[in-house]
Amino acid sequence: MEKYKLFDAEYKFLDIIWDFEPVNSTELTKVCFKKLGWKKPTTYTMIRKLSGRGILKNEDATVTALIKREQVQKYESEVLLEKAFDNSLPIFLATFLRDKKLSRKEAEELKRMIEEATN
Which parts of 8-68 fold into alpha helices (H)? Predict the structure, then answer.
């Protein structure tokens, strides 16, 4: 599971790839310059680094992610829950919702998720 641990810049980079994949590496450098302010060498360094970790595939100048956004989100949420909330989902939700108002639609969606998770 450690391979899903990403630094902020890596996550932002992957977010672009998930939105555009499969993406030509030249086109990716243009998007990264526009969205992140990165120059070409920075983008290529990140491609090499994440390819070496088994997170990306760069084949024939086409970059694709080998992990899904949902996998990273799941990992990050599990780490946060364990680290900051002693693995307690109720404590997390109580803290998160303390000063928020949910719409009826959001509340219904959360109820549905809880019901599905308990069956």
Answer: 8-20, 25-36, 40-52
CA angle 69, 71, 73 (to 5 degrees): 70
pTM reported for the whole predicted model: 0.79
Contacts 24+ apart (CB under 8 A), 106-112: none
Q: What's the burial of 47, exposed, middle or buried (CB within 10 Å: 0-12/13-18/19+)?
A: buried
Summarised one tens digit per residue, pLDDT across range 31-47 is 999 999 999 999 999 99
DSSP state letter for 3: G
In whole angstroms, give the CA distance from residue 75 to residue 81. 10
Contact call for residues 6 and 14 (beta carbons, < 8 A): yes
Q: Note the CATH architecture for domain 2-68.
A: Orthogonal Bundle (1.10)
Domain ranges across the chain: 2-68, 70-118
Closest CA to 37 of 12, 5, 69, 18: 12
Query: Is residue 22 classed as helix, strand or coil in its secondary structure?
Result: coil
Query: Is 63 exposed, middle or buried, given 0-12, 13-18 or 19+ CB atoms closer than 10 A?
Result: buried
